[in-house]
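> call design_seq(struct)
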């Protein structure tokens, strides 16, 4: 029988609301918005490291994260999440372009994007509609817009809408 890993949690207050960080001793498995029930959980060095990196991100001093991540998902979902990590900071990509390697799977790719539990760290917020509109974000479209605008301002490039 596998030994159950300890669970840890940290919170940060951000410009877009409270963020909960959940991890075990080795990996972060959730960075989510809003209140989470975490009775009995305490911080560890990993959750504190993530909280610091997120604070630096919101301050405009960090554009890439380097903490170890692992979330549960199918092989397909894992592949989608890995591909999200290739979208550069301060840029957006349409769902059509993001799924160009599997054009018939665009809905499955969008669904996998929506199952991402590592908000900001796995930048699902950088994928937008083909018409340049902001679509689908589990944290709310207002947060997606804020994150894209923040990254655009920090990087002095990118855009929140695709211009034709």
């Amino acid at each position: 029988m596998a030994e159950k890993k300890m669970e840890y949690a940290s919170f940060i207050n951000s410009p877009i609301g409270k963020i909960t960080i959940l991890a075990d001793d080795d990996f972060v498995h959730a960075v989510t918005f809003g209140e989470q029930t975490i009775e009995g959980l305490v911080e560890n060095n990993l959750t504190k490291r993530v909280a610091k990196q997120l604070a630096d991100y919101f301050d405009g001093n960090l554009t890439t994260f380097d903490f170890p991540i692992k979330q549960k998902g199918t092989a397909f979902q894992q592949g989608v999440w890995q591909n999200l990590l290739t979208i550069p900071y301060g840029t957006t990509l349409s769902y059509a372009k993001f799924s160009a390697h599997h054009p018939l799977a665009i809905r499955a790719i969008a669904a996998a994007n929506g199952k991402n539990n590592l908000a900001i760290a796995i930048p699902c917020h950088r994928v937008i509609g083909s018409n340049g509109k902001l679509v689908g974000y589990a944290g709310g479209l207002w947060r997606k817009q804020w994150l894209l605008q923040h990254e655009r301002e920090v990087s002095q490039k990118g855009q929140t809408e695709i211009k034709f």
